[in-house]
Amino acid sequence: MALTRTEVSTRARAAVGEIEAVTAFFASLREMEGRDDVLDLTFGNPHEMPLDGLVRAITAHVVPQTVDWFAYKANENEPREVIAAALSSELGLGFAPEDVALTQGAFGAIALALRLVGDAGDEVILPTPGWFCYAPMLRLVDMVPVKAPLAPETYDLDLAAVERAITPRTRFVVVNSPANPTGRVYPREQLDALADLLEAASARNRRRIWLLSDEPYRRIRFDGVPFVSPAACYPWTLVDYSYGKVLLAPGQRLGYLALSPLLPVPEREALREALMPVQLAMGWGFPDAIMQYAVADLEDVSIDLGELTRKRDRMLGALRSSGYRIGRPEGTFYLWGDAPGGDAARFVAALAERGVYVMPGTLFDRPEHFRISLTATMDTIERALPAFDDVAARLVTSS
Question: Which Gene3D superfamilies does the annotation name (predicted)?
């Protein structure tokens, strides 16, 4: 029998196409493997031994205490109670344990949100520049990414761009604050204005537009910048969170999806009832047993924000002194700036020749920008700075 098309599904091919630039970048990093002279400033991975508090929390729960210690775990009561109490205190909202679904990181929470209220063909408005995994995740569930640019220079929410992107098929608008890659934290007035816009558009469409608040960097903020969750401004908000950022342990998959307590009771109850069945249908989308046991111990564990601030200030000051145009992030652990000469691919390649690796803005739909991860050690940063100086001088001169 002759085959008429590839056996890879249409949705899988669409997802592959959306993420192709990222997978190609992954492949390019293989040349770093086994080299001692590499200075890696690409992804938010740990470069030092794990936090003591994380190790203690996991170790404390490895040894079984009951026969069902490693039995199937769904949304267990104790971690949901801990998270609901912490969320209520942190965000000033009355979360109940039933509003929380435990997931395998923010990836799992976003996937759950899409399946919970989204349908095939629905459109989702994404900020650009923004995280490069939103679009492929949407393609894999037959939803449609629609990109809306953030405001130039400030990277504030561009409400006019969001409004232009809304159609009768719009189901979600994604807000990421603190934002990857820009580090922007959106103030209350912008979120309130967005809420008003979505309320009016929902009424016009006669169909609810949901807001997905992507908050994995919520606890990583600088200079006392306050945080307001969209869940406090717009009742039809789903909040996703990951512990992997604040613990700097992205390989230990722990996160949650939370329903805004401001949701009207009928919608809130309907979503509560759907959480566990949908997670089961997704392939048992719950964190492993040990990570659920550890939640209470992990709530107060964090990377050293003081040291992170010092690394931000050191690199930001040095690069600006060398002529780089770099934004001052209010949150996350990234720096985002203009590539010297205006070509990120050329700039990144020139740095790689010097053994310094950063992320090109092409992965974020911005081919003239680049991103630096500050999770590297201070020693790595100091050793990388001369390469930044030399490459910038060479590219600016030749452009």
Answer: Type I PLP-dependent aspartate aminotransferase-like (Major domain)
